[in-house]
């Protein structure tokens, strides 16, 4: 049985290693968090751009109206100095209207200027956000690439070790292998324990002299009285 036990020890080592690799594979970060952030920022970018375009359209329309207003003032001034109108009261009234229109024109101009300044600020925000977005895109691509490489490496390592495991398992008696398998399923993947300072290395229960003697003298599979795992004493295995 020492030969079988030594094979079981090796099988447990390789199985535990495969378990760790699988766990690592499961915990690999595929970049979902960055992708979600990227998606959110893209959407925000679309919203900002849409708002900018709306503001721009409003400003352009305002500018067009301003030009119409200017044309009307010019027309009124042309009428005023054409000599067509001779009534002094009418002339005075027209002059007054033109003055008022010019004042309104100045106010509109200031408003217009504010709008263009606001649009300029919005444009700067868009440019900065665009840069941030591009940076995040590059980060995401790099992360995904790294994730793919690590996943591929882990999968290859698992495949190689599974192959090695099968070769090793084939050397073990079927009933022993079955017992190991059942224990592994029942005991969280660890079916084999080492005797360390007369105790089980997994559950740390001190083994009885009877069990320790059996380990030395009997050619059988000996289990921990407490946790039921298959025991081996490193001194007794080659
Ligand atoms: Zn134990």
Structure, explained:
A three-stranded mixed β-sheet has the order 2-1-3, with helices on one face. The protein folds into two domains: 2-24 and 173-232, no CATH class; 31-169. The longest helix has 82 residues, at 88-169. The chain has helices at 2-27, 32-80, 88-169, 174-186, 209-217; strands at 192-196, 199-200, 230-232. The chain is 75% helix and 4% strand. The structure holds zinc ion (ZN). The site of zinc ion has 9 residues, from loops.
Summarize the model shown.
With 238 residues, this protein is mainly alpha-helical.
Question: How many strands, which pairing sense, and closed or not: the largest β-sheet?
Answer: 3 strands, mixed
Proportion of helical residues: over 70%
Uncertain residue ranges: none
Spell out the helices and strands N to C. HHHHEEHE
C-alpha geometry: rod-shaped
Percent in strands: under 5%
Please give the order of strands in the largest beta sheet.
2-1-3
Number of domains: 2
Write the topology of this structure.
Layout: H1 2-27, H2 32-80, H3 88-169, H4 174-186, E1 192-196, E2 199-200, H5 209-217, E3 230-232
Parallel strand pairs: 1-3
Antiparallel strand pairs: 1-2
Helix pairs in contact: 1-3, 2-3
Structural descriptors:
238 residues; mainly alpha; 2 domains
């Amino acid at each position: 049985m020492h030969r079988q036990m030594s094979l079981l020890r090796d099988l447990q080592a390789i199985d535990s290693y495969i378990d760790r690799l699988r766990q690592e594979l499961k915990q690999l970060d595929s970049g979902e968090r960055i992708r979600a952030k990227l998606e959110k920022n893209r959407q925000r970018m679309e919203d900002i751009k849409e708002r900018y375009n709306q503001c721009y359209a409003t400003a352009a329309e305002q500018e067009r109206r301003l030009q119409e207003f200017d044309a009307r003032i010019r027309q009124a001034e042309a009428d005023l100095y054409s000599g067509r109108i001779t009534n002094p009261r009418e002339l005075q009234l027209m002059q007054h209207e033109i003055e008022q229109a010019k004042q309104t024109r100045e106010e509109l101009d200031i408003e217009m200027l504010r709008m263009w300044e606001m649009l300029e600020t919005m444009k700067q925000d868009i440019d900065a956000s665009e840069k941030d977005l591009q940076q995040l895109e590059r980060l995401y691509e790099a992360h995904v690439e790294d994730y793919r490489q690590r996943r591929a490496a882990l999968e290859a390592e698992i495949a190689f070790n599974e192959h090695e495991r099968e070769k090793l398992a084939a050397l073990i008696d079927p009933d022993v292998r079955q017992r190991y398998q059942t224990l592994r399923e029942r005991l969280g993947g660890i079916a084999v324990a080492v005797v360390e300072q007369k105790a089980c290395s997994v559950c740390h229960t001190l083994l009885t002299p009877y069990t320790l003697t059996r380990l030395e003298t009997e050619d059988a599979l000996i289990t921990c009285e407490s946790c039921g795992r298959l025991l081996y004493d490193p001194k007794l295995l080659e």
